[in-house]
Amino acid sequence: MEENYIDDIDSEIELDASINETNLFSAILLKPKAAIHFIVEKCPKRNVSKLFLVGGAALAFISNAPGPSSSLITFILSGAVLGIVLGNIYASVLSSIGRRWFGGTAMTQEYRAVLSWSLVPIILAGGLMLPLKLVLGIPDVQHELLFGQPRIMILIMITGFVQLASWAWSIIIMVKGITVIQPFEVPKAALNLFAPALTILGIVLVVSVFTVLVFK
Q1: 31 φ, ψ to 5°?
Q2: 50-61 pLDDT, tens per residue?
Q3: Could you say which DSSP state residue 211 is in?
């Protein structure tokens, strides 16, 4: 059986002594690379399903425009289910691409750990944006929003900033995590992360061009 890269580097890179199972949530934000190393080595299955579930719900929440509470709840529940399903599927795809296209050795379990723990910034952003979303969902505020009131526009800008910052932070953790579980530098790790999306985009582009050329 092929040995994982994380096993090969255990003797060369010591675990950060300041990181343990009680402070993983703060460590993943402040020391993502060291935290991922600890997680995949000591507790690769810890909180993975819960993080996919809550992370999917949080991502749906912060991406949803203010509106009726019933539709928001449905959106969040759908996001939670999709978080688990798509998180596991994407981890499997990344593992396969990492091994077959880029010569890596990390298995699906390591990618599941990286992807799930990288959702912590998204979850944090969801908590921070909850009061803002509640305010923006109030009918009177919705009315002010239609007329572009300055104070409401400031709230919109804050929510947009938090959303973008959480996504960027999450992607950084993913890329750093892949450099831990694979013998990849940052550019190669980023390519591994986005390869599925780029492949799908390429296929769609080719099909679109082919369709235009054939049916024009």
Answers
A1: -135, 65
A2: 999 999 999 888
A3: H
pLDDT of residue 66: 54
CA pair distance 128, 120, nearest whole angstrom: 12
The total number of structural domains in the chain stands at 1
Is the overall model pTM greater than 0.85, yes or no? no
Got the DSSP string for 89-156?
HHHHHHHHHHHHTT-----HHHHHHHHHHTTHHHHHHHHHHHHHHHHHTSHHHHHHHHTT-HHHHHHH
Distance, in Å, from the CA atom of 54 to the CA atom of 48, rounded to the nearest integer, reads 10
Q: Which long-range contacts (CB under 8 A, 24 or more apart) does 158-166 make?
A: 158/132, 159/62, 159/129, 159/132, 159/133, 162/62, 162/125, 162/128, 162/129, 162/132, 163/62, 163/63, 163/125, 163/129, 165/121, 165/125, 166/62, 166/121, 166/122, 166/124, 166/125
In sequence order, what DSSP letters do the residues of 61-84 get, joined into one string? HHHSPS--HHHHHHHHHHHHHHHH
In whole angstroms, what is the distance from residue 51 CA to residue 121 CA?
Answer: 11
Asked if 98 contacts 192 with a C-beta cutoff of 8 angstroms, the reply is: yes
Please give the mean pLDDT across all residues of the chain: 83
Name the pLDDT band for 160 (thresholds 50, 70, 90). confident
CA distance 201 to 99: 21
Residue 206: give the domain boundaries. Answer: 5-215
* Token representation of residue 41: 């080595």
